[in-house]
Every structure is written in structure tokens, then in C-alpha cells.
Amino acid sequence: MKKLLSLLLVAVLLLGLVAGCSNSSQNDTANNDSQGTTNDSDTQNDTNSEEPYQVNMVITLPATAPDAAAIERVTAAINEITLPALNMTLSLEVVPYSMYLEQIPLRLSSGSDMDIFTAFSALGPSWINAGYIIDMNDYLDEYGPDIIDTYASEDLARVCSMDGFLYGLPVHKEIAQQPTIFFRTDILEKHNIDVSNIKTLADVDALFEEVSKLEPDMWMLAADNTAQGKTIVADFLGTTTASTCVLNPESSTEVVNLIASDEFYEWCDYNHKWFEKGWINPGAASDTESYYTYIASGQAFAFFSDYGHPLSESDQEANCSGTDLTMVQMGEPYCNTGTSAVFCYCIGAGSKDPAKAMQMLNLIMTSPEIMNLLNWGEEGVDYVVNEDGLLDFPEGVDESNVGYHLNAGWILPNQFMCTPWCTSEPDIYEQIQAYNETAVVSKSLGFVFDPAAVADEVTAVTNVRSKYYKALIVGAVDPDEYIPMYLEEMEAAGHQKIIDEIQRQLDEFLANKA
Asked: What's the distance, Cα to Cα, between the start and end of the chain in Å?
């Protein structure tokens, strides 16, 4: 166990090694792998008269999805690859973030035949206990051997595990999160504002004070009501209550209540000040509109993020419909189990043929052609290859009128198979490797909490959260009044029992790791 977990630490830090190869080398290797798979599958299909199996794949995006016609067009191009290779077709559905957390659990609970779908890795343990997803171990070994080779190690390929149950395969991306803030570049340039020295919430407050006078009709902040305060560095240990964590995880393993911390109060206090001044959308606590929309429309000036890797700026610009953004890092990158596998791909328990689902995932994750189609669309229609070997829009096409252009490799199965876009450096994956190596690593890396023993308490605390959390983190209510009420109800709901159970499991994990 000690050796295994040590390898996990090394593996996570070396995720960027997948990116370390040049893009051309990756494509050559992947082409060879994919061709080998195709030839083997063709031989099998020559003697296989069964009807093609349709693999239902669901992905989620934070921004506006392409229209149905564009998705159908791109899927048809993908099926020109998958049908001869596997005797399978792909049915692709794109679900926006705003609907994901409501739709996907309902569909899983009803036995929907989703074969492959994007999952937030933190939801894995609860979905295991609910019977929503399958254990992928045996399927990976038999039907996904090429997938394992796309990771720096097999340990990393299996990092989304709880007590040996492999519930997902992590997407290929950076392994760290980092407190950041993004500003509309046009506003900074219009008023000749330098933001390079922004490091604290106090710095942000002073900047908002200045810009609010220059742009009185603009909200200073597009608030995100879906996650914890972005400047808070914590390891949430695979929990879903947004309240139980280890603060300063690079040096501590003490499980605490985030809501009672100084860090949480500071975030809520500043946001309440900004809310009261009219600098935040007044409906932020209940808003279902993506906060990116307010940046793209010019209604808001800035938003906080927890991503600061080399592709963050272009990724977030894509989320904001191509709006030019300036990123400022407000802390060091940090790595834990959750950040190394924020998103993963699962196979639903309602899948009619998990083996075929895994075969399809194996092809997708090793095929540059399919990954380029999923991310960028069709060559000659949605993109062209420029003289530098990078991708660009065709003549007369841009962000506003392109038919299909996800630019969301970070939430797709394996963006490192994609050809970089022309706005990125040709060596962007090497840059991500270097970024990964700078991350501060949580002492609890590799630990995932099993909530089964305190399931009732987790449900009760989650219900309490729904009353207070969103309103607090977007500043809609006074933290001096509402945090004490929140804490009192959490205590009554059994939050301390959750803390004690997590601490027990974590201590056991660390003892085995030592």
C-alpha cells in the first residue's frame, strides 16, 4: 500500500508527461494505436453480422452548446470512424452546467441507458452507494487497455476509486487548481488599469471601488453560486457538503468545518459588501444563468476562478463567447485527489452493454481524429489547419458564426489527443507539465471519503446547505447574521458526526500510507 500510494503521488505530479511529448509525436502514436484497433476490429466485424450498437454519450459544458444540427453533423463524421472500427455508432448529447446537477442524477436514478457520461469526480462515492454507476475495473482491463497507456501510470488511470471500486476515468488536463480572478481586458485598457499586483480580496475591493466609479452601470463581479469561495485553498476529501475539508492541506490533515473558518467568513464578508453596493447581480443567489453570460454581454467586469494553468485564459475566453480576458493569479497552484481528477467519465448502471461502452471510450481516448471532431468540429467546415500545423477558423468564420466549436478539451476525455488551437502555443502541453510540477500537494492525496456510514447526516447537512450556502457565498445575506444560524442547524443535523467519520477514515488511510 505504501508503495502504491507513493506511486500515486508521483503519477499525479507527472500527469503532464502525457503532454510532454510534442503534438506531432502524440498524433503519430495515437494514429498508430487507433489504426491497430481499427484493423483488429475490422477483422472481427467481417464475421460479425449483429446490428451496430449505439453508444449514448452525454457531456456537459459551462457555456452555450452547439445547436442540434451541428451536433448531428459532427456525430455523423465521428460515426464514419467508429462504425467500421467497432460496429458502433455514437449518439452525442450536450447538457449545460445549469441543468446537469438536476438532470443527470434523475436520469441515473431512473435507469437511463447513458453509456458514457461526464461526471464530477466528487459525486462518485455517493453514486457508487446509490448504484448509479458500474465498477469499471474488469471492463478497463479487458476492453480498455489502450486507455491505461494514455496516463502517466496505471495508478493515475485508476485514481477515481473508492475501496477498489473504479467509478471513472479522469480527463487529461492540469492536475492543480489555483485562486485566480479574470477581468475584461477592454475595461482595463480603456482606463489604463494595471492589475498585475492584485493578490488579496482587499486588493480586489480597492480595484472594484475604482472601476465602479468609471463604469457605474456595470456590475463589478459576475458571481458564481455553484462552488466554494475561489480564494479558499482546501482539500474537500471527496465530500459533497461543501463544508467539510482540510485547510492548509499541504501541512495539515485536520478535518474541519469550513463554514466556521476565518477564510469562509472573509469571502462572504467581502461579497456581502460588494452585493450591498450593487456590484453583484441582485439575483445571484438564485440565478440559473451562467455567470460567464454576464461577462460576454458586458454587464459584469470580473469573475473569480480556481484555474490558473497555461490554457486557463483561452478556456475562459471561450466560455465567455470569445471575450478578451486578463487573468491574475492570487495564490499558488495546489493539488489533491479532487483537483487531479475534477472530471471523469463513467459508465452508467443502465448501460445496455458496458463492454461496448468501454470499447468506444477506448477508441475516443486514443483517437486524434475523434477528439478533434468532439472539440473542434469538422475540418474545412469548423476549422482549418494553418501553415504552423495549428487549427484556426476557416475564412469568413469566427467565434460568432461557427457551427461547432466546443473549445472545451479540459472536460472531454483526452484533450492531449487534440491539435492545439492557433491561440495556444505549439508546446502548450509541455507548459501544462511544467505547471503541474509547481503544485503544492495535499498530504491527503489519494484519499476519497466513503459517506455510507453517515449517509443520513450528509443528507441532512446538504439540506441545511441549500438554505444558506448560495446566499452567503454571493453576498446576498449578512454573514454576521447568517453564518451562526447555518452553523447551529449544521450541528443539529449531525455535522460533527460527519467530521469524526471523515477524520477516522483519513487517519486510517494515512496510517496505511506511512
From this structure: 9
- DSSP sequence for 393-459: PPTT--TTT-S-----GGGSSBGGGSPPBTTS-TTHHHHHHHHHHT-EE-TTTT----GGGGHHHHH
Q: What is the pLDDT of residues 368-389, one digit of tens each?
A: 999 999 999 999 999 999 999 9
Mutual orientation of helices 368-376 and 23-46 as an angle, nearest 10°?
110
Q: Could you tell me the three cell numbers for 56?
A: 449514448
Rounded distance between C-alpha atoms, residue 319 and residue 322, angstroms? 7
Q: Which domain holds residue 7?
A: 2-42+52-173+341-441
Number of domain units in the chain: 1
CA angle 245, 95, 476 (to 5 degrees): 50
CB 317 within 8 A of CB 323: yes
Domain with 147 in it: what CATH number? Answer: 3.40.190.10
127 contact partners, CB below 8 Å, separation of at least 6: 105, 108, 119, 133, 167, 346
Q: Determine, yes or no, domain membership for 129.
A: yes
Structure confidence at residue 48 (pLDDT): 57
With a CB cutoff of 8 Å and minimum separation 6, the contacts of 24 are: 389
Of the listed ranges 104-108, 137-141, 225-229, 500-504, the one predicted with least confidence: 225-229
Residue 196: other Cβ atoms inside 10 A? 7
Pair 39, 452: CB distance under 8 Å: no
Which class for 422: exposed (0-12), middle (13-18), buried (19 or more C-beta within 10 A)? middle
What are the two backbone dihedrals, phi and then psi, of residue 93, each rounded to the nearest 5 degrees? -125, 135
- What type of residue sits at position 171? V
For residue 8, being part of any structural domain is answered with yes
| pLDDT reading at 12 higher than 60 | no
Give me Rg for the CA atoms of the chain. 23
pLDDT in tens, 267-296: 999 999 999 999 999 999 998 888 999 999
pLDDT at 20 over 70: no
Cβ-Cβ contacts under 8 Å for 465 (sequence gap 6 or more): 241, 242, 243
Query: Which residues fall within 8 angstroms of residue 133, CB to CB, at 6 or more apart?
Result: 108, 119, 124, 127, 167, 168, 346, 347, 348, 349
Question: Is residue 95 classed as helix, strand or coil in its secondary structure?
Answer: strand
**322 in any annotated domain:** no
| Grid cell at residue 1 | 500500500
Q: What are the backbone angles phi and psi of residue 414, rounded to the nearest 5°? A: -150, 85
Q: What is the mean pLDDT of the chain?
A: 88
HSE, CB side, 13 Å, CA atoms: give it for residue 201: 18
What is the reported pTM?
Answer: 0.70
- Grid cell 477515481 is found at 160
Q: How far apart are CA 92 and CA 80, in angstroms?
A: 14
Which alpha helices (DSSP H) does 254-290 contain, by range? 262-276
- Identify which of 280, 262, 282, 258 has the alpha carbon closest to the alpha carbon of residue 271: 280
